[in-house]
Specification:
The complex is a heterodimer. Chain A is an alpha/beta fold. Chain A has helices at residues 43-50, 72-77, 94-104, 110-123, 139-150, 169-182, 195-201, 219-226, 240-246, 280-299, 306-310; strands at residues 5-13, 19-28, 31-36, 58-63, 66-67, 79-82, 157-161, 187-192, 204-209, 212-217, 230-235, 248-255, 258-264, 274-275. In chain A, strand 12 and strand 13 (258-264) form a beta hairpin. In chain A, helix 5 (139-150) packs parallel to helix 6. By secondary structure, chain B is an alpha+beta fold. Chain B has six domains: 2-264, no CATH class; 305-599, no CATH class; 618-718 and 725-749 and 785-833, Immunoglobulin-like, CATH 2.60.40; 838-921, 2-Layer Sandwich (Zincin-like); 972-1091; 1095-1198, Immunoglobulin-like (Sandwich), CATH 2.60.40.1840. In chain B, the strands form seven sheets. In chain B, strands 1, 2, 4, 7, 10, 12, 13 and 14 form an eight-stranded mixed beta sheet that branches. In chain B, helix 13 packs parallel to helix 16 (405-436). Chain B is globular. Mean pLDDT of chain B is 89; it is low at 271-283 and 286-290. The chains are: A alpha/beta, B alpha+beta. Chains A and B meet through helix 2, helix 3, helix 4, helix 5 and helix 6 of A and helix 12, helix 15 and helix 20 of B.
Chain lengths: 312, 1201
C-alpha cells in the first residue's frame, strides 16, 4: 500500500528567534525523496518535526491517514530515523545495542528479535564486527549501524538526515546502495547538502533554503528545464565580480589557477561562453542563486554572499 | 617566566569573567557569615557555653569544616578543568602548536586556577570576620576582634588544603585527561581522612591520627583537645608539633604530586587525534550480494506487554550501565573500606569494645555508606537523565515507539538498584566483619528487614527526588545544585527549629532497634512515614512524567504546554489518587503526632520551662510535708503500652511550722492524673499546662501531723510521635521510675532552664547551677529528692503472664489472678524515695554471695534477655568481688539481695536503685569481655553500680555543691579498687591503662564547660569532674596515703552519716575525714586535689645512663616540675612555691618498674641520679600519671647512653 507524506504550511520559530521553517508544504510519495539545501536551510528542523522530535508553530503533517503531530506514537511505530550526527554508547557492542533498539521498537519476541538483528547486521555488513564496541567504529560503520537501527520493525517512513557527511567515497557508495534498496516500497526522505546523493538516488526532490521550499519536483525534469540555458567559461580570478554583476552566475569553481563559471542565460551570452549539459548541481545552484537574487531584489540591496555559497 | 605570567594572566582573566568564581565566593562568604550571625549557627563547631561565638577555636573548626565540604568541590571543579578545558573544547591542538613550553603552560594554568580557588575560600574568613562584628550579636558571647585567627587558618590550613586537593585533582585530570578521575582520586583522599579518623579515639594511636589527617581538622582538634574555654577564646594561632608535622607532610605531598604531573605530562594530543577511541583496524569489505535477501518478518507489539518488555530491556540496560561504570565501582570500593573503618570505630568504646551485634552493624552501614549513597544519588541522577544527550543518542531514543514512562522508570530502577548494591556491599562487609570477630549470631532476618524496609526505602525516596529534580530542571549541573540544596535544607530545618517531619522531605521520626523489643512501637510510625514519603515520591514521578523532555526543542513554555497536553484523564486520576493518599496519610500522621500525642517543638518546651520558673519559683522553700512511706500497685499492660499506678503516700509535717498549702506537681506530661486525693484539702489552683496544683488545707497541718495521699497515675501511649518517642512502657522491656509515677510536693528547681544563653533569651536571671555548699536551707534536701528522706516501700506489680515484673524490695509473693501475673515486693529497710518498675520476658541467672566471715548470704539475680548471655557470669563475678570489698572496707550491705535487670537500649545507662540495678542492653550486656581489653567494662560498670548501694543508698549528699562527690566519685573510687584487687598481679599494668582514659576524658571535657569548672570539693554535678577527675585524684590519693588509710576514713565517714536524716551531709564532712587520714606532708596534695584546680606540667628533659664498674647503672635524670592553678574559666597561674612529692620511676624491658619512689621537689628544675641494678630503657617523673598533667606523655623518655 503506497503511502504519501503530506506536509502543509509548516512554520517554526525557535525560542532564540531563529525562523527555521516558513510555510513549508511538500508532498512526498513512496520512494526516495531528496531534500537538498545548504547548511542552516531548515532541513534538520523539518526532519525532526516529521520525526516527532519537535512541534511546529503552525501547519500539519500527515503520513497516509496518520496525523503526525497529534498521534506521535503511531508515527513512531512506523518510523525509521537516522539523525544527523548521532552518537551511540561507546562501551556497548553493536549486536547488544541493536537488540536493545529492537526491543524498544516493540519486537518483544526474543526469537524474532535475534533473527532480525542478525539479518540487519548482515545486511549492513556489520555481522563480523557485531561483538565490537560501538566506540571503536569508524564513521561509515557507525552510519551503517544507524541505518540498521532505522530499519528495525518494518518502517513505512524512513528519515535520514545528512547521512553521507564525513564518509569517504567508498563508504558513501555502500551506504547509498543500501538506501536505494530499501527505498523502493516506503517513503524515504534523504536530507543532504550534497547534490550527487540526490542525483544518484532520488525520484523526487525538493530544494529548501532559509526555511522555504524553493523548488519541488523530479530531478530529471528540473535538469531538462535548464537544458540549453547553461553556459560555461573560464575567467581570471579578478574578473569574477564583474561577471557576477553582468551575468547570472550559477556557480564558480577554481580550475588550474583560473575560475570556471556556469552561467544561466536564455540565449547564448557571448563568444567566450560555450554551452554545457546541465546537471542537478546546476539546478541546485541556479535555484539558490535565483532565490538570493529575489531576496536581494526585495530588500533592494546588493548581496555579496554568492561566492561563498558557490564554493560549496 | 614571562610565559608563565602570560598563562597565569590568561587563566585569571578567564576566571574573572567566569560566573562560578563569584557564585562560589558568595557561597563561602554567606556560609561563614550565616554560621556566625544565626542563633546557634556556631553550636556545631563548639561555640557553646563559655566559648564565644567568634572564639578562634570555634571559628577555626567552622572554617575547616566548610573548607572540607566546599573546598573539595570548588577546587576540583576549577583546577581539574584548567588543562582539561583545552582538551574538552578541542583547543589543545591550538595551544600545543604554539611555542609555549610545558612548565609555564602547566604551572601557569595551575597557579591561575589555584589563586582563584584561594580567593573563593577566603570568602569564609571574610564572612566570619564580618559576621562577628554584627551589632545584634549577644555581646556576652563574642570576644574582641583580632585578625590573627583568620590569617592563621587561611595560611596554615585552608590554603594548604586547597593546594593538596588541587594538586591531586590536577594530577588525576591532567594525566588521565578525564575530569571524572579527579573526583575519584579525591574520594580516595576523603577515605584517607575517614580511615585516619578511626584511630583518634584510641589513645595509643591518636597522635598518628592527628598527623595523618590530610585536611588537618583532627590535627587541630587534637592540638586543642585539653584547652580550657579561656584558651579557646584567646589563642588565635597555635603552632604545636602535630600541626607543624601534619602541615609539612601534606604540603609536601601536594607539591610532589604537582611535580610528578609536570614530569609526566606530554604536550601532545592523544593518539587518534581526537576524543574517539582507537578504531578498528580495517572496515570490513562490503559484500554486494548480501543485499537482496528479504528481512525476516517481525510482529512488533505495542500493548502493555510490549511496553513492559521494553521497560524490562531498558531497565536492564540502565542498571548495567550504572553498576558497571568505573566511578560506581570505585565508589563501592571506597564505601566498603569506609564501612569497615566505621565498624572498627563503632565497636570501640574507649579502651574497650562491644560485640559486633547485628543492630550495631546496621547502624554502621547507615553511617558508613550514607556519604557514598549521597554521591551516587546526586551524581548518577544527572548521569542517568542526561546519558542519551551526553552520547548524542537522544534523537535515536526519542523517536522510538515507547511511552515516556519507560525510560523514566528504567532510570529510577537503575538509581534504586545502584543504591541497593551499595547497601548490599556494605552488608556483606559488616557480615564479614562480624565473622572475623568470631561473632556468628548474624540475624540475617534483621539485616533484610532493616536494609529493605528502612534503608533502601529511605534512599529510594531521595533517589526518586534526585531523578525528578534532574528531569524538571533539565540542566545537569543546575540539577546537582538543586539536589544539594534539598539535602542541606533537610539537615538545616531541624536546626532552625522546624522540627516536624511532615514538611522535612524524606525525614522520619527516630527509630531505635532493641534486641529486647525489636522495632517495637516504632513500627507503625515508621511504616506510616514510609507510605507518606512513598506516596510523595510516586506523585513526583507522575509529575516528572508530564515534564519528561522528549525531542530536541524544550523551552519552558513549550514544556508546560506539552505537560498540559499530556495530562490525560488517566494521568490526572493517577495524580489525584497519589495526592489523596499522600494527604490522607499526612493527615493520619498529623492526627497521631499532633492530636493523639502532643507536638512540642523545642522552642515551645523552653517557653513552658521559663513560665514554670516565673510563675512558681516564688514557692520554692515553702514548707511542705515529707513522704515517709510509699506503697504502690502498678498494673502493666505492655502490649497495649498502658500502665496504671495506684499509690498511697504517707506524709508527715517534719517542719516546726503549721502547713496550710500543699503544692503538687506531676512531672510527666504524658501521665494522666486519674485520681489525687488529699484528705481535707481543696484544689485552689490548677495549671493544666504545667500540671501544677495548689491545694489548701481546711485545717492547718501541725508539726508532727501526718496524712495519707492516694493517687492513680495512668499512662497510655497511643499512636506515634514526631520526635523522640516515650520508651518507658513498651511491649518487652518496660522501665519507668518514680519521677513519672508519683506526685511531687513543692516547687522543684530541677525543671528550670539551665543553659545560661537560653535563660538570657527568656529574660530569666542568672541561675546558680547548684546551691552553695554552705546554704543551710538547701541542706534540708538530698540531691535525689525534694519531698522525702528515707521511706518505707512496698509494691504490687502485675503484668502479662509471660513477663516478670520487678520493683525494689524482696519478692514476697507471686501469683496469677485473672490471667495476669502478680508480684509483691516489700523492702525491709528504709530507702531513698527513688524507685523503678520493670517488666520483660526475662531469663534469670541466680547465684549467691556468702560473706567470708560467715553470716547472712546475699542473693544475686541477673534478669537478662535470652540472646544476651555473654557477660552474665562476669556480672555475677563483679558483684561478688564488689561485695567482698565493700562489706569489709566500708560497711555492711543493707539488703539481702543484688539484682541486675536488663532494659532496652532506648537509654544507655546503668542506674542503681535500692537492691536493684537496671542496666541497659547496650552497656555491659554486649560488651566484648573476651578480647584483651584496656578497660574491663563489665567489671567496671557493675562494681560502680554496686558501689552506689553504699554511695547514694547509705550516704547521700545534700542538694548543694559537692553532692556527687559522695555518690559518683566514691562509687568510681570503689570500682577502681575492686578492679585493682581483681586484677591482682596484673594491676600495675592494667590500672594505668584505665586511668589514662580517665585523665584524657577529664582534660578533654574541661573545654566544653558551660559555666565554670569547680574544684572537686564543690563539684556541681559535672560529670567530667565527679567521674573522671575524681578517678584520677582518688586513685592517686590511695597511692600516696595508702588504700587502707583512705578506706578507714571512708568507713568512719559512713559510720558518721549513713542513713542520716536532714540536714544532709556535705563534702566538707567527707573532707574532714580525709584530712584526718592524710599525713602532714601530703596535706598540700589533698588541698590541690579537692580545693583547687591543679595542673602539673611535669616533664623528663633528659635521661642518660652510665654503666658502672660494678655492673650496676647510674641513671641521671633531668626533670621539670611545674604546678599551675587554674580558675573556673581555665586561666592558669603558676604555683608560687613548690614542696611536692612526686614519683620518679625507671623501667627496663618489662612493665614492672626497676625503680619507683616518691621524691620531694621544691624547684622547677632538678637533676637526680639513681643507682639501678638493671639497665633502664625509659625513665621520668610521675611515670604512672598519678597527677593531673596536660601533657602526660612527656613525663618519661627513652634513656640514652
Amino acid at each position: 500500500m503506497p503511502t504519501t507524506l503530506t506536509i502543509e504550511n509548516l512554520s517554526k520559530t525557535y525560542a532564540n528567534g531563529v525562523r527555521a521553517l516558513r510555510g513549508v508544504s511538500l508532498t512526498i510519495p513512496t520512494g526516495m525523496f531528496g531534500l537538498l539545501g545548504p547548511n542552516g536551510a531548515g532541513k534538520s528542523s523539518l526532519m525532526r518535526t516529521i520525526a516527532t522530535l519537535q512541534d511546529p508553530d503552525e501547519g500539519s503533517i500527515a503520513l497516509g491517514d496518520i496525523d503526525v503531530l497529534r498521534n506521535k506514537d503511531a508515527v513512531r511505530r512506523v518510523l525509521g530515523y537516522l539523525p544527523q550526527d548521532f552518537g551511540v554508547y561507546p562501551n556497548v557492542d553493536a549486536a547488544t545495542m541493536l537488540d536493545h533498539f529492537a526491543a524498544l521498537k516493540g519486537i518483544s519476541d526474543a526469537k524474532q528479535r535475534k533473527a532480525i538483528v542478525e539479518a540487519l547486521l548482515r545486511r549492513v555488513n556489520l555481522w563480523d564486527v557485531r561483538k565490537n564496541k560501538l566506540g571503536g567504529y569508524s564513521g561509515g560503520m557507525r552510519q551503517r549501524f544507524g541505518i540498521a537501527q532505522a530499519l528495525l520493525g518494518n518502517p513505512r517512513l524512513i528519515i535520514v538526515d545528512e547521512p553521507t557527511a564525513g564518509l569517504d567515497p567508498e563508504e558513501r557508495n555502500r551506504f547509498l546502495n543500501l538506501l536505494a534498496e530499501i527505498g523502493e516500497h516506503v517513503v524515504v526522505i534523504l536530507s543532504t547538502h550534497i547534490v550527487e546523493d540526490v542525483a544518484d538516488l532520488c525520484t523526487n526532490m525538493a530544494i529548501i533554503a532559509n526555511g522555504e521550499v524553493l523548488r519541488e519536483g523530479q530531478p530529471l525534469a528540473a535538469i531538462d528545464e535548464l537544458r540549453g540555458k547553461t553556459w560555461k567559461t573560464t575567467i581570471e580570478r579578478g574578473q569574477l565580480e564583474d561577471y557576477e554583476r553582468d551575468y547570472r552566475v550559477i556557480s564558480n569553481r577554481r580550475s588550474a589557477g583560473r575560475v570556471l563559471i556556469h552561467v544561466f542565460a536564455e540565449a547564448h551570452p557571448g563568444a567566450s561562453f560555450e554551452p554545457v549539459a546541465p546537471d542537478l548541481e546546476d539546478v541546485y545552484f541556479n535555484t539558490l542563486a535565483r532565490a538570493r537574487a529575489d531576496a536581494a531584489g526585495l530588500a533592494e540591496t546588493a548581496s555579496t554572499a554568492t561566492s561563498s555559497l558557490g564554493a560549496a | 617566566m614571562s610565559q608563565f605570567l602570560d598563562v597565569l594572566r590568561f587563566e585569571l582573566a578567564f576566571r574573572r569573567r567566569h560566573a562560578p568564581l563569584w557564585i562560589f565566593t558568595g557561597v563561602t562568604f554567606s556560609s561563614a557569615f550565616l554560621s556566625v550571625v544565626i542563633d546557634g549557627g556556631m553550636d556545631p563547631f563548639g561555640a557553646v557555653g563559655a566559648i564565644a561565638i567568634n572564639s578562634p577555636a570555634a571559628l577555626h573548626s567552622m572554617m575547616l569544616m566548610f573548607c572540607l565540604i566546599l573546598g573539595l568541590v570548588i577546587t576540583t571543579a576549577f583546577v581539574a578543568a584548567a588543562v582539561n578545558r583545552d582538551h574538552d573544547f578541542g583547543a589543545s591542538g591550538l595551544f600545543f602548536a604554539t611555542p609555549l613550553r610545558k612548565l609555564p603552560y602547566l604551572l601557569g594554568r595551575f597557579s591561575g586556577s589555584m589563586l582563584a580557588a584561594w580567593f573563593m575560600i577566603a570568602g569564609l574568613a571574610l564572612g566570619a570576620l564580618l559576621g562577628s562584628v554584627m551589632p545584634w550579636l549577644d555581646p556576652e558571647r563574642v570576644v574582641g576582634l583580632s585578625l590573627t585567627p583568620y590569617v592563621y587558618v587561611l595560611g596554615m590550613f585552608l590554603f594548604p588544603n586547597l593546594l593538596l586537593i588541587g594538586a591531586i585533582a590536577f594530577a588525576a585530570a591532567t594525566l588521565t585527561r578525564r575530569i571524572m578521575f579527579s573526583y575519584v582520586a579525591l574520594l580516595g583522599l576523603v577515605v584517607v581522612y575517614v580511615v585516619s579518623g578511626n584511630y583518634i579515639s584510641n589513645l595509643d594511636n591518636d597522635f598518628i591520627a592527628a598527623i595523618s589527617d590530610p585536611f588537618g581538622i583532627r590535627t587541630y582538634e587534637f592540638a586543642i583537645r585539653y584547652w580550657t574555654p579561656a584558651e579557646m577564646n584567646s589563642i588565635g594561632a597555635p603552632f604545636t608539633a602535630e600541626i607543624l608535622i601534619n602541615r609539612a607532610i601534606w604540603i609536601t605531598v601536594g607539591l610532589a604530586l604537582l611535580g610528578l604531573t609536570c614530569v609526566r605530562y606530554r604536550m601532545v594530543l592523544p593518539s587518534g587525534g581526537g576524543r574517539k577511541r582507537t578504531q578498528l583496524d580495517l572496515p570490513p569489505p562490503a559484500k554486494t550480494q548480501a543485499q537482496s535477501q528479504p528481512l525476516p518478518p517481525v510482529t512488533p507489539r505495542y500493548d502493555w506487554r510490549g511496553q513492559l518488555a521494553a521497560l524490562h530491556v531498558q531497565a536492564r540496560a540502565e542498571i548495567r550501565a550504572l553498576v558497571r561504570s568505573t566511578p560506581f565501582l570505585v565508589i563501592v570500593l571506597f564505601g566498603v573500606g569506609n564501612t569497615l573503618g566505621v565498624a572498627y570505630a563503632f565497636i570501640d568504646r574507649g579502651g574497650t569494645t562491644t560485640l559486633p551485634v547485628t543492630h550495631l552493624m546496621l547502624t554502621v552501614i547507615a553511617g558508613g555508606m550514607s556519604a557514598f549513597l549521597l554521591i551516587v544519588l546526586v551524581f548518577y541522577a544527572g548521569e542517568l537523565i542526561h546519558r542519551e544527550r551526553k552520547y548524542k543518542a537522544s534523537e535515536l531514543f526519542d523517536t522510538l515507539p515507547v511511552p515516556n514512562w519507560v525510560p523514566l522508570l528504567a532510570k529510577l530502577a537503575a538509581m534504586i538498584v545502584g543504591m541497593f548494591v551499595l547497601l548490599l556491599a556494605a552488608a556483606a562487609t559488616t557480615t564479614a566483619f562480624q565473622l572475623s570477630k568470631g561473632y556468628s549470631h548474624l540475624e540475617i532476618g534483621l539485616y533484610v528487614r532493616n536494609l529493605l524496609l528502612i534503608q533502601v526505602q529511605q534512599w529510594a525516596v531521595l533517589g526518586v527526588a534526585a531523578i525528578v529534580v534532574q528531569v524538571l530542571v533539565n540542566q545537569k549541573f543546575l540539577g546537582y545544585m538543586v539536589m544539594v540544596l534539598i539535602i542541606v535544607a533537610q539537615l538545616a530545618l531541624p536546626a532552625l527549629h522546624f522540627e516536624h517531619h511532615l514538611y522535612n522531605f524524606a525525614s522520619y521520626p527516630p527509630t531505635t532497634y532493641s534486641d529486647m523489643n525489636g522495632y517495637g512501637h516504632f513500627v507503625v510510625g515508621r511504616a506510616t512515614f514510609a507510605v507518606y514519603w512513598g506516596a510523595a515520591a510516586i506523585l513526583l514521578v507522575l509529575i516528572a512524567e508530564l515534564f519528561w523532555v522528549r525531542g530536541t526543542d524544550s523551552p519552558l513554555a513549550l514544556r508546560i504546554r506539552t505537560a498540559r497536553a499530556r495530562l490525560t484523564r488517566g494521568r490526572t486520576a493517577a495524580i489525584v489518587a497519589a495526592s489523596l493518599i499522600w494527604l490522607a496519610v499526612g493527615g493520619f500522621i498529623f492526627y497521631n503526632t499532633n492530636v493523639v500525642n502532643e507536638y512540642r517543638p523545642s522552642a515551645e518546651q523552653e517557653r513552658l520551662q521559663a513560665r514554670y520558673e516565673r510563675d512558681y519559683k516564688q514557692h520554692q522553700g515553702l514548707a511542705q510535708p515529707r513522704i515517709t512511706a510509699v506503697e504502690i500497685e502498678a498494673d502493666l499492660y505492655p502490649d497495649e503500652r498502658r500502665v496504671a499506678v495506684r499509690g498511697t503516700l504517707h506524709l508527715v509535717n517534719k517542719t516546726t511550722a503549721p502547713i496550710t498549702e500543699i503544692h503538687v506537681l506531676s512531672r510527666d506530661p504524658k501521665v494522666e492524673v486519674a485520681a489525687l486525693e488529699l484528705p481535707g484539702a481543696t484544689l485552689a489552683h490548677f495549671d493544666e499546662e504545667l500540671r501544677y496544683r495548689i491545694f489548701t488545707l481546711d485545717a492547718a497541718m501541725q508539726p508532727g501531723d501526718s496524712f495519707t495521699v492516694t493517687y492513680e497515675f495512668r499512662k497510655h501511649l497511643r499512636g506515634f510521635v514526631n520526635g523522640s518517642a516515650d520508651n518507658t512502657v513498651v511491649e518487652n522491656g518496660t522501665f519507668f521510675n518514680s519521677m513519672s509515677f508519683m506526685p511531687h510536693f513543692g516547687y522543684s528547681d530541677s525543671l528550670e532552664l539551665t543553659d545560661p544563653n537560653i535563660r538570657r533569651k527568656h529574660d530569666l536571671p542568672p541561675r546558680p547551677r547548684m546551691a552553695k555548699i554552705d546554704d543551710l536551707e538547701a541542706r534540708g534536701n538530698s540531691y535525689i529528692s525534694t519531698d522525702s528522706d528515707w521511706v518505707k516501700f512496698a509494691a504490687t506489680v502485675s503484668t502479662v503472664p509471660d513477663q516478670i515484673a520487678l520493683a525494689p524490695g524482696y519478692l514476697e509473693r507471686e501469683w496469677v489472678e485473672g490471667g495476669r501475673r502478680y508480684f509483691r515486693y516489700e523492702m525491709d529497710a528504709p530507702i531513698l524515695n527513688f524507685w523503678s518498675v520493670l517488666s520483660a520476658r526475662y531469663t534469670v541467672e541466680r547465684d549467691e554471695w556468702r560473706p567470708p566471715g560467715g553470716g547472712q548470704p546475699v542473693a544475686i539475680e541477673i534478669f537478662y534477655h535470652e540472646s544476651h548471655p555473654y557477660n552474665v557470669a562476669k556480672m555475677i563475678e563483679a558483684i561478688k568481688a564488689s561485695l567482698d570489698y565493700f562489706t569489709v572496707e566500708f560497711s555492711p550491705y543493707q539488703h539481702r539481695q543484688v539484682r541486675i535487670l536488663e532494659f532496652p537500649q532506648y537509654a544507655s545507662f546503668a542506674q542503681s536503685f535500692p537492691n536493684t540495678i537496671p542496666y541497659s542492653e547496650s552497656l555491659g550486656f554486649i560488651a566484648d569481655a573476651n578480647a584483651d581489653q584496656d578497660v574491663d567494662y563489665v567489671l567496671y560498670v557493675t562494681s560502680h553500680e554496686v558501689a552506689h548501694q553504699w554511695w547514694a543508698h547509705q550516704v547521700i549528699g545534700a542538694n548543694v555543691q559537692g553532692a556527687t562527690l559522695m555518690s559518683e566519685s566514691l562509687a568510681q573510687y570503689s570500682a577502681l579498687m575492686v578492679m585493682q584487687r581483681y586484677y591482682g598481679a596484673d594491676a600495675p599494668t592494667k590500672m594505668p591503662k584505665f586511668m589514662k582514659y580517665e585523665l584524657d576524658r577529664y582534660l578533654g571535657a574541661r573545654g566544653a564547660e558551660a559555666l565554670e569548672e569547680l574544684p572537686l570539693l564543690l563539684v556541681e554535678n559535672q560529670q567530667y569532674i565527679h567521674y573522671n577527675k575524681a578517678s584520677v585524684v582518688l586513685f592517686a590519693l590511695a597511692q600516696y596515703i595508702g588504700e587502707d588509710a583512705l578506706n578507714g576514713a571512708l568507713r568512719d565517714y559512713i559510720a558518721e552519716v549513713g542513713f542520716q536524716e536532714p540536714p544532709y551531709t556535705v563534702a566538707h564532712d567527707l573532707y574532714a575525714h580525709l584530712q584526718a587520714a592524710t599525713p602532714a606532708r601530703y596535706q598540700y596534695l589533698l588541698a590541690d586535689m579537692f580545693e583547687r584546680i591543679t595542673l602539673y606540667d611535669n616533664r623528663a628533659l633528659a635521661a642518660t645512663v652510665r654503666e658502672r664498674d660494678d655492673g650496676r647503672f647510674d641513671l641521671t635524670l633531668e626533670v621539670q616540675v611545674r604546678k599551675l592553678y587554674a580558675d573556673g574559666k581555665g586561666v592558669e597561674t603558676e604555683a608560687e612555691t613548690l614542696d611536692d612529692w612526686i614519683e620518679v620511676g625507671a623501667y627496663g624491658e618489662g612493665d614492672a618498674p626497676l625503680y619507683l619512689e616518691l621524691h620531694r621537689f621544691d624547684e622547677t628544675a632538678d637533676t637526680l641520679t639513681i643507682l639501678l641494678d638493671e639497665r633502664p630503657r625509659r625513665a621520668g617523673i610521675d611515670p604512672r600519671n598519678l597527677l593531673i598533667d596536660r601533657a602526660p606523655r612527656d613525663n618519661t623518655r627513652a634513656v640514652e647512653g
